[in-house]
């Protein structure tokens, strides 16, 4: 094995390794004996491939996923390496159980001044910046049993004290997940300032650009629209306009609408 490959995912003083370890926690797979695999959309893999090539890897596989004999989703690209020693090291720090435990062991071996790169890799895999109108959301997704302890600790360290935890059960419980999200623009900026504190040379450029979009304030006309109707407001959690009516001193949701004018029409109809 070359000296480059000997350093792969082992030397935590190297920025590329720290980032890839974060991404591996989100979208990677560690087998029982020797294999380590990363697979994602081919367009996103373009951001990862140069990092992997720095360690001497040149073999990558592109494939289409199929369901019931028909292609679905986008084209995928995969990296896979067999390394018994590295596999054991990753298992010892929790990478086989990463869907149900917190990444405490791996974070403990990363120098504190480089941990932001691990979080950048993790958020590139399982995080999302979302902005639409007055809605600004940063969300992270995981299994329904995911231990979010380290994420909560990160938020506290950054001075973020308000977040939302939600679990989802779909298709009779076969597809279950959990999500942690923040909806305050100033808190989203704290996350971005932390994970993008250096020059943006490692990671998904598209997510960095989406983060910058989330920093833009709503237009003045948008703020005026919000205050025009006391029973209509924009939900930062689902990106829709919510219309409410007071019934017996209780605020009851009449409906949610993608368009502001439709929400106002519903408000006027139920408040005539």
Could you explain the architecture of this structure?
This protein has helices spanning 3-7, 15-27, 42-53, 84-92, 104-109, 115-126, 149-157, 185-195, 205-214, 220-228, 260-270, and strands at residues 28-30, 35-41, 61-67, 70-82, 127-132, 135-142, 164-170, 175-182, 232-234, 241-247, 250-257. The protein is 39% helix and 28% strand. A hairpin with a 2-residue loop joins strand 10 (241-247) and strand 11. It has a four-stranded antiparallel β-sheet. It has a four-stranded antiparallel β-sheet with strand order 5-6-8-7. It is elongated. It has two domains: 3-214, Homing endonucleases (Endonuclease I-creI), CATH 3.10.28.10; 220-270, 2-Layer Sandwich (GCC-box Binding Domain). Helix 2 (15-27) runs parallel beside helix 6. It has 272 residues and is of the alpha+beta class. The chain contains eleven helices and eleven strands.
Q: List the helices and strands in order.
A: HHEEHEEHHHEEHEEHHHEEEH
| CATH topology label of the largest domain | Endonuclease I-creI
Percent in strands: 25-35%
Question: Which regions are unreliable across 5 or more consecutive residues at pLDDT < 50?
Answer: 220-227
What is the assigned CATH homologous superfamily of the largest domain?
A: Homing endonucleases
Strand order of the largest sheet: 1-2-4-3
Largest sheet: 4 strands, antiparallel
The figure for the number of domains is: 2
Under CATH at level 1, the class of the largest domain stands as Alpha Beta
Distance between the termini: 77 Å
What's the number of extended β-strand segments?
11
Shape: elongated
- Count every helix, treating DSSP H or I runs of 4 or more residues as helices: 11
Level of helix content? 25-40%
CATH architecture of the largest domain: Roll
The structure class reads: alpha+beta
């Amino acid at each position: 094995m070359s000296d480059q490959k000997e350093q792969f995912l082992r030397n935590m003083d190297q920025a590329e390794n720290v980032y890839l370890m974060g991404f591996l926690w989100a979208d990677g797979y560690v087998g029982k004996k020797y294999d380590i695999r990363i697979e994602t959309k081919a367009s996103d893999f373009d951001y990862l491939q140069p990092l992997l090539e720095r360690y001497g890897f040149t073999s990558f596989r592109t494939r289409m996923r199929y369901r019931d004999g028909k292609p679905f989703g986008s084209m995928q690209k995969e990296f896979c390496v067999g390394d018994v020693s590295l596999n054991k090291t990753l298992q010892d720090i929790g990478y086989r159980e990463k869907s149900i435990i917190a990444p405490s062991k791996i974070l403990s071996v990363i120098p504190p001044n480089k941990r932001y790169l691990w979080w950048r890799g993790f958020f590139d895999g399982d995080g999302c910046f979302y902005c639409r109108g007055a809605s600004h959301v940063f969300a992270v997704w995981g299994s329904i049993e995911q231990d979010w302890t380290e994420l909560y600790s990160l938020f506290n360290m950054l001075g973020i004290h308000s977040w939302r935890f939600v679990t989802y059960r779909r298709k009779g419980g076969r597809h279950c997940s959990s999500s942690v999200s923040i909806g305050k623009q100033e808190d989203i900026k704290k996350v971005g300032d932390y994970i993008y504190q250096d020059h943006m040379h490692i990671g998904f450029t598209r997510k960095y650009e989406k983060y910058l979009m989330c920093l833009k304030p709503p237009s003045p006309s948008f703020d005026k629209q919000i205050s025009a109707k006391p029973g209509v407001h924009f939900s930062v959690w689902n990106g829709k306009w919510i219309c409410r009516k007071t019934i017996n001193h209780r605020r009851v949701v009449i409906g949610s609408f993608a368009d502001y004018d439709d929400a106002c029409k519903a408000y006027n109809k139920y408040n005539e």
